[in-house]
Design brief:
about 475 residues, alpha+beta, Immunoglobulin-like, Zincin-like, Neutral Protease, domain 2, 3 domains, 6-stranded mixed beta sheet, binds zinc ion, EC 3.4.11.2
Amino acid sequence: MVLAVALVTAGCSDDSEPVTSPSSAAPVFTAGADGAGDPYFPKYGNGGYDVAAYDLKLRFDPKTDQLSGTATITATATQDLSSFNLDLSKLAVSAVTVDGEKAASTASGAELTVKPSGGIARGREFTTVIRYGGQPSRLANSALGDGGWLETPTGAIALGQPESASTWYPVNDHPSDKATWRLEMTVPAGLEVLSNGVQSPARTDGGWSTWTWSESSPMASYLSYVVIGQYRIAASTHGGKPMITAIADSLPADGPAAKSIARTGEITDFLATKFGPYPFDANGGVVVDEQRIGYALETQSRPVYGPAFFAAGDNETVVAHELAHQWFGDSVALDRWQDIWLNEGFATYAEWLWDEHEKVQTVEQSFDDVYDNYGWDQTPETTGDPGAARIFGDAVYQRGGMTVYALRKTIGDAAFDKLLVAWTTQHRDGNATTEDLIALAEQISGKQLDDFFRAWIYEKAKPPKP
Ligand SMILES: [Zn+2]
């Protein structure tokens, strides 16, 4: 993510763990937790199961702002489950089945609790079908910003980090539970629908068009999105994969946004020379003309850009940033929000790489600029543990980028190049932590790096220039 405007921040909610029965010879079926246990956002996501796939069949009518349809969720129980939760905000559930049998459900806040007719044994795959609908809205009480469903003059935009998905579909809304994803979105004919992954041909019937998008690589829920409205779509192939870019009709056809996004393939190819093969089946970008989207987000396989990034002219740097996240953040995803510097540090470093490639300035000059101007004494957070309210802080982005370059200088270019590709290969389609990065860097370089990482990411003091 790159912010174009500052977010308002607030504290996060408290947590409570469900009580489980003592073990006995017979399996004890207990309720799945109502949070995934993330130290920063304990209520995000849920416990007791692991989603493999979401399949959404939805209809949105911009005239009434009503969204309705079904979500089919295939998951595997990770405990003997008596009931389990999904995250769903503001929308009403009208029917739930689990493996074809009617299931009870109750909603409380953004938690939907599903109680199947019988328990689900640990290790069993089960399919939940949820019929739901209503008028979606943003997450006004989110700890950070106000992600989620946003009505626009011609349609809607559902987008946001660290959470947004629960405003439009029932979800295990934490990046540790990645899943494949398929969206069928039916809208009035004449509107366009953009989303993640590969597009199937749209079909129109009775004044409504159905657009289908599929993401075959496991995806963190905050990286899913939908954009509905009037867009100019350009479809081609790049490196044998579909390349789909879209610019809001209200933005100029040959303006800075269009020109910058048109370089998506070229920038991807450049980054692949550093990070290894591009990890997804599709690529592209979407530029919205909505001032309330004051950021760009690395939505999987097709980032979404707010208009502010192109207000002053071409901006390939933001494109390089969001495309770098396809490796760092999307393919290799967070296991906990504390580690967000793994996303933003490498994406910031990628901006410097691109500037060097474009002969703007060298990576070393970019590092020096940030090092000389960073608020060493004022920045309240550390890079490696910024706190829930500061996950988009300078320590995560600027000091995170500096940490990546300092690591390169410390272990040398050969080990560093090897590390980048080993990281994106070993953790492809998975999740990883800061500890995983430190271990791999030490293994590849043969150096003990505890002191290096302590100085750069867990302390606030200014480390010496590497
Ligand atoms: Zn970012």
